């Protein structure tokens, strides 16, 4: 059993009057893929953004490698080695692939850019992800397809010495072959000892790659279990009703956003 | 910085770091043929990325039109006059490109430049005693304003925005005696102070730049009037240095030295970059195309230098020759600015914020700081433009920087191909667009057209350029 690398304890998050996350407990273990599932609007993306320092949390504790931390900005998250692939991809369309992959962390000395170095590194990373559909790493993101953009976003997150990678629905816009590549990649990241969080609606994918499944129901953590201990049916029930047999929230009908 | 990316279990990993890359991005590593590059360019233009192509075509049409309609237009005297006339607008436009790149606007750049010009002229005319030039109240308010500007810049750690206002403050408080270089520095400091205020209001207070700068457009016009007084005119043509900025020329030797420095520097930079990319197996233009480009620039530069070192005086008793000082001034600003935008992390972040501010924020970029800094740049550069246009006119009046100044500068940037939607544009756009505007003004003047016609035509050209911009955006969104 591997160590928890990232832990959330009792996280609450509201947007004005809307209470989106309720007392969330969540554990990411190094070397494991944790699938985060839940219906649309359950709060998965909000949870990821709270971890990444995009949204400040209202209360609760975040532990990274056992130490309590407060992450105020994406930069701080990156400094801890936490990388996020956002559902709304967050790429600059006017910049090319290399420029996007190194955005905010450009290589070079004295504020000057080392384009050659960045271009080679970007190309190497993309090649290692077996990306063949992109003709040139100098293509502006504006002229890439949805799937290609997704690949760039993922490549961006593995370019760094990351310890935790959070992927928010990375396969939603992909074709069969590219989904395959992303799932393989997810597994490989975990095998290298990273803590991986995969948000997905596809139960087959979830059961194929994950070691654990965490299920959000209306902003509450309904259950977090080893994948081998649950069935498809139970997970679907947890997603839709917040409860399945003796798993899940005690009284889901009283749960409100 | 992690040198090795985390995926090392692929065969492409260590032994032959580039072999995998080459097969996967073939077009990246093999040098493109000229034909391929041309096709790519055509595809780019068809896809809506016109760049400065429309402006260059417009420039050509205008030169042919005025060249055939007016006998004076293509004379050497008029061409050098044209350079001096256009330089002020071009410089202000270059500063505005930074603001436009963020999808913001600075409507106050014109009147802000007027404030800088009036302080510069007052310092000269009133022997450096600004206390008596302004009167007590205005003097202390001005000093207080510069102090506040420095503090605002310090809050966001924009250090040039702190240093320059403080220098300006020291010049004012010490009553430094008049000296053209001090006056120009003071103008720059005033511009920086103004930019700090604008930038802070937009980036930190969060008022839309349109509103902030519309308000400040009015306010700075008033300040210039207050400084100079109704109907006043401050002559600066008696100071040799200030007058020569836009009216003086390099001597023949100087002109050729400039040519050697500029053409040589350009050639060295372009070729060095090109061949080092080829060596490292990176995306590169076809070598013949690069050579043609460099050759054209050298040729044009040489022809211009030959022509401008001819005597162009109409009066047979005097000799006027040499490349006007405004040429190296604009070239230096263009080079420095382009370098900042293309080669530094700061420049990259400007494009990123203009392209997608939220993505930039998530990438850890300090978006408010970038946003404030571009206004500091725009106003500072506008002050430099003010030095040039004041020098050209030879005096500063309450209407300096008012009227069409700003619209022409925004027009220059947009006509050149800078997008009003942000994220797209280059400094040379401002130069090309500025040339279009200067030629329209100059050419219509030679054809004895009244000011009304000049305004109408320039307005229509700007509208046309903005339509091209919107069209290009729609096209690239559709593709
Ligand atoms: N920036 C925001 N401001 C206000 N409400 C938000 C914001 N982001 C998300 N929400 C709300 O939070 C809830 C959870 O959204 P989200 O985290 O995107 O769900 P999921 O990713 O699980 O589909 C939704 O009700 C959504 O409307
Ligand atoms: Mg979501």
TrEMBL record, chain A:
InterPro entries to which the protein is assigned, alphabetical: AAA+_ATPase, ABC_carbohydrate_import_ATPase, ABC_transporter-like_ATP-bd, P-loop_NTPase
Domain ABC transporter: from-to ranges: 6-243
Entry keyword ATP-binding: yes
Gene3D superfamilies per UniProt: P-loop containing nucleotide triphosphate hydrolases (3.40.50.300)
PROSITE patterns, alphabetized: ABC_TRANSPORTER_2 (PS50893)
The keyword Nucleotide-binding is annotated on this UniProt entry: yes
Molecular function GO labels: ATP binding; ATP hydrolysis activity
One Pfam family of this chain: ABC_tran
Record's keyword terms, sorted: ATP-binding, Nucleotide-binding
SUPFAM superfamilies: P-loop containing nucleoside triphosphate hydrolases (SSF52540)
PANTHER family documented for this protein: CARBOHYDRATE TRANSPORT ATP-BINDING PROTEIN MG119-RELATED (PTHR43790), SUGAR ABC TRANSPORTER ATP-BINDING PROTEIN (PTHR43790:SF8)
Record protein name field: ATP-binding cassette domain-containing protein
Species per Swiss-Prot/TrEMBL record: Umezawaea endophytica
């Amino acid at each position: 059993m591997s160590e928890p690398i990232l832990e959330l304890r009792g996280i609450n998050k509201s947007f004005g009057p809307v209470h989106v996350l309720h007392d969330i407990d969540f554990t990411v273990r190094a070397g494991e893929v944790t699938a985060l599932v839940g219906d649309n609007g359950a709060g998965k993306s909000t949870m990821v953004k709270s971890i990444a320092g995009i949204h400040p949390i209202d209360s609760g504790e975040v532990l990274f490698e056992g130490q309590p931390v407060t992450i105020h900005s994406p930069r701080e998250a990156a400094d801890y080695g936490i990388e996020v692939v956002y559902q709304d991809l967050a790429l600059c369309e006017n910049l090319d692939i290399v420029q996007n992959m190194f955005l905010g962390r450009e290589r070079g000395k004295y504020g000057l850019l080392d384009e050659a170095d960045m271009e080679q590194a970007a190309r190497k990373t993309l090649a290692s992800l077996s990306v063949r559909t992109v003709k040139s790493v100098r293509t502006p993101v504006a002229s890439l397809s949805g799937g290609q953009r997704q690949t760039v976003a993922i490549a961006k997150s593995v370019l760094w010495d990351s310890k935790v990678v959070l992927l928010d629905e990375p396969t939603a816009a992909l074709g069969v072959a590219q989904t395959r590549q992303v799932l393989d990649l997810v597994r490989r990241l975990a095998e290298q000892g990273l803590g991986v969080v995969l948000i997905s609606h596809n139960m087959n994918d979830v059961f194929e790659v994950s070691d654990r499944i965490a299920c959000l129901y209306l902003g509450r953590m309904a259950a977090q279990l080893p994948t081998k201990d649950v069935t498809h049916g139970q997970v679907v029930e947890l997603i839709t009703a917040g409860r399945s047999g003796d798993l899940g929230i005690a009284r889901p009908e009283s749960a409100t956003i | 910085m992690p040198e090795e990316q985390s995926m090392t279990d692929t065969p492409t990993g260590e032994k032959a770091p580039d072999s995998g890359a080459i097969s996967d991005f073939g077009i990246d590593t093999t040098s493109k043929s000229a034909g391929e590059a041309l096709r790519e360019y055509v595809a780019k233009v068809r896809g809506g990325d016109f760049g400065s192509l429309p402006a260059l075509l417009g420039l050509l049409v205008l030169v042919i039109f005025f060249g055939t309609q007016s006998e004076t237009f293509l004379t050497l005297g008029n061409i050098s006059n044209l350079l001096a006339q256009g330089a002020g607008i071009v410089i202000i436009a270059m500063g505005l490109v930074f603001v436009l790149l963020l999808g913001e606007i600075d409507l106050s750049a014109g009147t802000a430049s007027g404030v800088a010009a009036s302080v510069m002229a007052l310092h000269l005319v009133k022997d450096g005693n600004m206390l008596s030039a302004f009167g007590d109240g205005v003097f202390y308010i001005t000093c207080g304003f510069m102090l506040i500007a420095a503090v605002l810049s310090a809050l966001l750690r924009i250090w040039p925005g702190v240093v320059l206002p403080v220098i300006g403050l020291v010049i004012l408080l010490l009553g430094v005696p008049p000296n053209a270089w001090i006056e120009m520095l003071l103008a720059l400091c005033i511009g920086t102070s103004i930019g700090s205020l604008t930038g802070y209001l937009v980036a930190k207070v969060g008022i839309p730049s349109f509103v902030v700068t519309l308000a400040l457009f009015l306010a700075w016009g008033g300040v210039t009037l207050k400084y100079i007084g109704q109907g006043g005119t401050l002559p600066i043509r008696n100071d040799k240095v200030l007058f020569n900025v836009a009216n003086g020329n390099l001597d023949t030797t100087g002109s050729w030295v400039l040519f050697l420095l500029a053409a040589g520097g350009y050639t060295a930079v372009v070729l060095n970059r090109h061949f080092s990319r080829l060596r490292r197996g990176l995306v590169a233009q076809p070598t013949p195309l690069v050579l043609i480009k460099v050759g054209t620039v050298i040729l044009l530069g040489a022809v211009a230098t030959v022509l401008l070192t001819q005597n162009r005086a109409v009066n047979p008793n005097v000799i006027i020759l040499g490349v006007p000082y405004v040429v190296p001034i604009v070239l230096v600003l263009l080079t420095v600015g382009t370098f900042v935008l293309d080669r530094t992390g700061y420049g990259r972040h400007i494009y990123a914020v203009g392209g997608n501010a939220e993505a930039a924020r998530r990438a850890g970029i300090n978006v408010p700081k970038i946003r404030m800094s571009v206004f500091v740049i725009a106003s500072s550069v506008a002050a430099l433009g003010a030095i040039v246009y004041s020098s050209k006119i030879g005096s500063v009046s309450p209407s300096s920087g008012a009227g069409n100044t700003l619209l022409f500068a925004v027009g220059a940037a947009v006509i050149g191909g800078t997008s009003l939607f942000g994220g797209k544009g280059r400094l040379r756009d401002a130069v090309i667009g500025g040339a279009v505007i200067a030629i329209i003004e100059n050419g219509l003047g030679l054809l004895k057209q009244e000011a009304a016609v000049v305004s109408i035509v320039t307005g229509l050209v700007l509208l046309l350029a903005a339509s091209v911009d919107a069209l290009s955006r729609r096209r690239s969104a559709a593709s």
